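Lecture notes, structural biology module. Today: joint structure prediction for complexes of two components.
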Amino acid sequence: MRFRFCGDLDCPDWVLAEISTLAKISSVKMKLLCAQVLKGLLGEGIDYDKVTKLTADAKFDSGDIKASVAVLSFILSSAAKHDVDSESLSSELQQLGLPKEHTMGLCKSYEDKHSAVQEKLRETSLRLGRLEAVSWRVDYTLSSSEMKEVNEAVVQLKLQAQGAESGTSESTLVSLSADKFRVLLSELKQAQTMMNALR
Amino acid sequence: MLLVLSEEHKEHLAFLTKVDAAVVGEFGRIALEFLRRGISPKVYDGAARKLSVPVETVRHGVEALMYLVTQSSKHTLSEVDFVDSVLSLEFGDELNQSLLQLYLQHRSEIRGILSLVPSSMPAYHNLEWRLDVQLASRSLRRQAAPTLTTRLHLTHGHGSGTEVRGRVLRVDLGSLLHLISILEGALGALKSTHARRILRNIK
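The predicted structure, tokenised, for the full assembly:
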């Protein structure tokens, strides 16, 4: 059985098993649990005390709590990843055996937050060597030990980026003469025109 | 199966008959602590002074106890086998029982510690990927070259010394298709009759 929210693959066995765990709590509590899980996906952190209180009525032990948070995270992030609309998600979850009220609660929460989740997933996608900051200054060299009168402008650029392999912040210092800088600037402007043409 | 204890081992363990049950319990606790954290010789000195015996005797006693417990855990001896192996020491019922309790309570923990000992190869942890299409470069405009950039996360080390390191790999389309076909072939090998026959016998 292929499911769109699993990326047109079979639904993992553990998700099937934990959907029955989710059915044990009331649909109102399930919607609040979804809200907490969505907060976690957006990077705001899950308040585990609230989660414990929500699941206390159904007498979930710590294993059940972890399982229900995991299955909700999987469903919500996977649906956002494959850009599934909430009607398809609703019908697929009902096929898997999640009761109707629970499915409706989940899909409502998903619909409210799905573009925010997609934005967050876009930000955390793999990027090598992200540029963090650029600082520059222009100097004018008057004279040097080699030549008495130099009279040239020099641009100094400091690029702060994440190292491609290490992921930690590294800074690179470059100094350019006026001509070199002009070439660099025109090439970068051409690249920018190409990027803008794509939008 | 039965453990066969060497004469030297039996001699070292014989020390335990000469002390009372509380001390045996204490030695057991020390032996387990050493298995968890490593040996600290100062504990031997303290114990030797309290019992007024030479440090060597205490050291041999604790080490013999550690060896007995690790060997039993290694082979997952059943209760009956453990008691039979210990019978050859002629310890007396009470001592046998306390050794048995020590073994049973901590057996799975010791097996866990033993499993950490062999050095491990880096293991797969996560694979992040992104699909890019190169449209132009400084030297050539109007291209359409797809590449897959991946970061492979591997865990090195084991237990508390585990660290995750990432390696950046760039895969072009041809290599990617080849990689996929090789990995699918590997998965398919699990379903061959040869592999199935072996797996059936292991279970």
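Point to remember: The first strand of chain A starts at residue 131 and ends at 141.
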